[in-house]
Amino acid sequence: MSDNKTSAKKPRLDEEAAKPGTADEGMNIAKHGWFTELGSMWPGQGLSLKVEEVLYKGKSKFQDVCVFESDAYGTVLVLDGVIQATDRDEFSYQEMMAHIPLCALEAPAKRALVVGGGDGGVLRELARHTSLEEIHIAEIDGDVPEVSKAYFPGMAVGFNDPRVTLNICDGIKFVQDAAEGSYDVIIVDSSDPVGPAEVLYQQPFFEAMHRALRPGGIICTQAESLWLHMDIIKSLASMCKTVFAGGSVSYAYTTIPTYPSGQIGMMVCCKGQQLDMRQPRQPAPGAHEQLGIGPLRYYSPDIHKAAFVLPQYAYDELKDSLTHV
Questions:
Q1: Global pTM?
Q2: Cβ partners under 8 Å of residue 306, min gap 6
Q3: Which residues carry out catalysis (predicted)?
Q4: Mapping DSSP to helix (H, G, I), strand (E, B) and coil, where does residue 209 land?
Q5: β-pairing, 82-86 with 111-116?
Q6: What torsion do the CA atoms of 100, 101, 102, 106 make, to the nearest 10 degrees?
Q7: What mean pLDDT comes out for the span 282-286?
Q8: Burial of 107 (0-12, 13-18, 19+ CB in 10 A)
Q9: Mean pLDDT across the stretch 157-174?
Q10: Chain centroid offset of residue 98 CA
């Protein structure tokens, strides 16, 4: 087996290769009883889950939406044919997306913004942080919160926090309209850069986030798989190095079985300060008994530090754009 396997046949994100799909493309329940996640961003492979029952199928203004009960992973949310969350493993992603940026801050956060994240999972994790006074969310697709409330109450519980303000709107415009220095943390919980989420990976949006952050504030944005999307990650890291000049740029990742390759990353950037995001400075939050949110199951100070340790091939590809490696 070649030592250069990771560089072979890299998926390219272009108008011809990357396009939204549907749940129907991966599902033939009558014949097989399985859903296979087929996507233009991971050609030649597809995760399959045994389907017990389709709970919801619809099409919003922006995307195909499906919810089904699986044999192995509980309830599954699928948008444009791509698995977004399952009962069994969603916590590994939600906890790391929320707690890495909040715990890396030098001072406890008071105002946080989530762009995307309509399933409510990141909101649930932000609700653990007692220092937060305001939590805003800008989600473009109003159907996603409603579907999550109906079928994923364990995630959607985040919407019940009185500090949360839900805005159904264009996330880019919301960030552009925010006052300069408005937020301590901005978390972009987006789907892949295909369809309505594509603009969330482009430089004008990152420039708007930089403006909306206070000095020393942190953004954390979904940043794809080291195994499948190195070209996308390299481009994103290079762009962040430009936008966050004088600050810091880091890449971390978490494991999650139902995402392509079982791994997903996050770009973590600090405004105007070369803050080492590998170091947690705030304590890990606890349970939120009033909302019925139990103890953490994935995030810890040790896994915070470990999340930034890159395999050698990724280090070699990204080292010129990252501040602390």
A1: 0.90
A2: none
A3: 189
A4: helix
A5: unpaired
A6: 110
A7: 98
A8: exposed
A9: 97
A10: 9
Candidates 119, 141, 189, 192; catalytic one: 189
The DSSP code for 293 is B
- As a whole number of angstroms, the distance between CA 136 and CA 113 comes to 5
d(CA 213, CA 111): 10
Give the tokens for residue 275.
Answer: 């803050």
Beta bridge partners of 68: 54, 76
Structure-block tokens of residue 154: 């364990």
Secondary structure class of 179 (helix, strand, coil):
coil
Tens-place pLDDT, residues 109-140: 999 999 999 999 999 999 999 999 999 999 99
**Encoded amino acid at 39, one letter:** G
Q: Supply angle C-alpha 137, 212, 202, rounded to 5.
A: 80
Instruction: Say which amino acid occupies 179.
Output: A
Q: In degrees, to the nearest 5, what angle opens at C-alpha 174 toward C-alphas 208 and 19?
A: 80
* Single-letter residue type at 170: D
Check whether 5 has a pLDDT greater than 70.
no
CA distances from 291 to 119, 137, 158, 170 (A): 16, 18, 8, 28
Measured CA to CA, the distance from residue 247 to residue 274 in angstroms comes to: 5
* pLDDT tens sequence across 77-110: 999 999 999 999 999 999 999 999 999 999 999 9
Write the CB contacts of 219 (distance below 8 Å, at least 6 apart in sequence).
101, 185, 186, 187, 188, 206, 209, 210, 213, 267, 268, 269, 271
Rounded to whole angstroms, how far apart are CA atoms 106 and 132?
Answer: 14
Going by C-alpha positions, the residue among 310, 297, 309 that lies closest to residue 90 is 297
Any alpha helices (H) in 213-296, and if so which ranges? 230-243
Catalytic residue at 184?
no
- For 171, phi then psi, to 5°, come to -60, -35
* Residues contacting 24, CB < 8 A, separation 6+: 64, 81
At residue 243, what is the residue type?
A: V
